[in-house]
Amino acid sequence: MPKGNLQPIGEPTIITWPENPQELRQIVEANERMSFLLAVSGELAGIRSPQEVICTAMARLRERLGAARVSVAELDEARGEAILLRESNGAGERIEVASVPLETFVTAELENRDTHSIRVPLMKAGKRVAQLSVVSTTPREWTASEKELVRRVSDIVWPALEMARAERRVTMSEERLRFAQGVARIGTWEWDPETRAAWFSDESRELLGLHEQEGTALQEEWKRNIYPKHLSQVYAMLEECTSCRVCEIEYRYQHPERGERWIFSKAGLVEHAGHRHIVGICLDVTGRRQAEEALKDVNRRKDEFLAMLAHELRNPLAPIRNAAQLLNAHSSGKPEIEWARAVIERQTKHLARLVDGLLDVSRMVSGQITLQKKPMELSEVVQDAVETSRPLIRLRKHHLTVQLPEQPVLLEADLTRLSQVISNLLNNAAKYTEEGGQIRLDATVDNGVVTLRVRDTGLGVDPQLLPHIFDLFTQAERTPDRSEGGLGIGLTLVKRLVELHGGAVEAHSEGLGSGAEFIVRLPALTGTTHSVEKAVGRVPVAAPADARSLRILVVDDNVDAADSIAMLLTMEGHQTRAVNTARAALLAVPDFKPEVVLLDIGLPEMDGYEVARRLRTQSGHRRMRLVAVTGYGQPADRRRAHAAGFDEHMVKPVEPAALQDFLRVVQSDVE
């Protein structure tokens, strides 16, 4: 029978020991290793902390081998550091943690590759992520059994190390979250849809000023502090979250110490092990809400200022225009006077357009632009726009080409506003194209969509400006020769007005020096059932050949405006009287018996509406025509004027031709 083999003979087992001492020593060492590992495993089995497992295993290994030190190193390439865990020599913690640069650690490893230590690496995905080291203070011939023992202990340490690393990551993540919550003042909460019970974190309790400890009392305290009309909305959000999975809300909250607050909450549905609950965060957004309200107030004040500025600018425009008309009547053919009159009239019109732009901005940002839409032909809109822009195009000697579809194209639009869109684009092309340039307006219809293209050979648009070309007060860089650069509101109005018509606008340019193209897309009316009202231009009303003069009372607190328009009307053969206060107007009517009263709305002490109402109540003045003269021209302003008893509403500066037409109608009626 071969020696060293175990042979079963019935129930007993006979062990034959090897005669070779080396084999015997290997068996003894293996048994001792196994006994040590069993003892260590038994001791570690009762330890729940992975850090304590590592510390105990290191201590037992050091004692077993009589080593000077046993350590574990975690290698983090992403952060470039090595974290060393070793037994502490002092009181308190049994383990020390130190961090060294990874490069320093690797260099030290290379320099100390001698017989002083045993190193066992932990490899993951081909990379060394940790290392167990046993170090002796003196050179030592480590046996194969000792090396095997270190390897077997490392098999015990590595799972504990992985668990410790995971716990540390979780702890660090929780600490970072708590720190972020503390800095950002964000609280967390949970709500159970089944029990309808709520839980609040410490951060939430501090943020919401909750003092009750837990349970129903805590939830009731929270509910009491929510404004009543918002409480139902909060619970509706929670119920909605069970189906929509993610919801949010802002609600008013009465904090017991800090007063009224605004709380933002966002929540999501979490399902685990068959149980559903709502998890959310809460944040005090009172500062943001207050800033928003302050910004709205600033914007409101700005809009009021723009409206008032535009209104006040209209007042001096009227006497300037009237003075230009007087110069026209007394020029006697002198070129110098005619030139001066033309300059004044041209610049007055330009200033009036700027004022209209300011008013449009005020209406646009406050959402007060209203459209009077009705079916109309595209050709009418284009014709009106081209007539508006033609003076500027001629002034700059441009060549304009207009191409429209041969068949009539119907739109549902506000003629004035849609014409303003096209004229703004044409004016923009004229202003930013050098003299003698080409401007083209093309219109096509495809699949119920009208496409308008305005192209020019002008300066083009800088690529950095192009994304912001429709922003308010945005302008390209202006050169001194482009004196009509405007206020940077025309394209903003274009975009807003096109959107109000249910369309869209876009801008294209290959860059500076390459011209620009603006494309407007609008829905077309289909079918033939729409009745189209043709736009009829203003046709002057002819006065009767023997039309007599009218008695006209001019009421305006602006003395120059009142005197200049009275002088113009006197030159037309009418009898006029100018007064500057509401009281003077009421006193002048019984004596002067005017047939027409041009009445400024913005009078001091008593506005024009009240003056009109009082004049209408006086007997004997029923046939007197009242004309409201004002800087406000919105539909609401016109309705208010007619409700006060006015027969006509005219916006400053009054167009002389429009006033003459009205007076001719009055002359026809009184004959």
Any key phrases for this structure?
671 residues, alpha+beta, five-stranded antiparallel beta sheet, 46% helix, single chain, elongated, Beta-Lactamase, 23% strand, Helix Hairpins, 5 domains
Structure commentary:
The longest helix has 44 residues, at 286-329. The protein contains 17 helices and 24 strands. The chain folds into 5 domains: 15-170, GAF domain (Beta-Lactamase, 2-Layer Sandwich); 185-284, Beta-Lactamase (2-Layer Sandwich), CATH 3.30.450; 290-365, Helix Hairpins (Orthogonal Bundle), CATH 1.10.287; 374-523, 2-Layer Sandwich (Heat Shock Protein 90); 551-670, 3-Layer(aba) Sandwich (Rossmann fold), CATH 3.40.50. It is α+β, with helices and mostly antiparallel strands and 671 residues long. Mean pLDDT is 80; it is low at 1-7, 478-484 and 534-543. The termini are far apart. It has a 5-stranded antiparallel beta sheet with strand order 5-4-3-7-6. Helix 8 (286-329) packs parallel to helix 13. A hairpin with a 2-residue loop joins strand 6 (117-124) and strand 7.
